[in-house]
Amino acid sequence: MEQAVIVYLLLSDGQFGTSQERASILALENQLEQAVGNASVGEFDGDEFGEGKCILYMYGPDAERLFVVIEPLLKSSPEAAGGYAIKRFGGAADPSAKEVRVTW
């Protein structure tokens, strides 16, 4: 079963954020991708910018283990302040997949 952690970061404007925000988030993405890969808990699958937020997608067999690996990076990142994550315990197409919202 594929599970997910979907991270929502709030941007300073209602659009795509500043160039500095985007650069800082890309650096955070690199850290997340490396941490997830090194811990062998899944994969970082990319981002989506727009409408005042950036969404980061990570997938693996255990959303809880995936979040445990990335949480310290989110807590220490100024770009992630005020954000939140959705841990999804099931596939995207499964309407009964449990979802839990977490903050740091």
DSSP summary: helix tally: 2
Question: Can you give the helix content as a percent range?
Answer: 25-40%
Say what the CATH topology is.
Alpha-Beta Plaits
Largest sheet: 5 strands, antiparallel
pLDDT below 50 for ≥5 consecutive residues: which ranges?
Answer: none
For the termini, the CA-CA separation is 26 Å
Radius of gyration: 13 Å
Query: Mean pLDDT, as a whole number?
Result: 96
Q: Please provide the ordered H/E string of secondary-structure elements.
A: EHEEHEE
Strand content: 25-35%
What is the CATH architecture descriptor? 2-Layer Sandwich
Shape: globular
Give the beta-strand count. 5
Would you give an account of this structure?
- With 104 residues, the protein is of the alpha+beta class.
- It contains 2 helices and 5 strands; from the N terminus they run βαββαββ.
- It has helices at 19-39, 63-76, and strands spanning 3-10, 43-50, 53-60, 84-89, 98-102.
- Strands 2-3-1-4-5 form a 5-stranded antiparallel beta sheet, with helices on one face.
- β2 and β3 (53-60) form a beta hairpin.
- α1 packs across α2.
- 26% of the residues are buried.
- The model has no long low-confidence stretch (mean pLDDT 96).
- This is DUF695 domain-containing protein.
- It comes from Mesorhizobium huakuii.
Key features of this structure:
34% helix, alpha+beta, 104 residues, 2 helices
Describe the SSE topology:
Blueprint: E1 3-10, H1 19-39, E2 43-50, E3 53-60, H2 63-76, E4 84-89, E5 98-102
Antiparallel strand pairs: 1-3, 1-4, 2-3, 4-5
Helix pairs in contact: 1-2
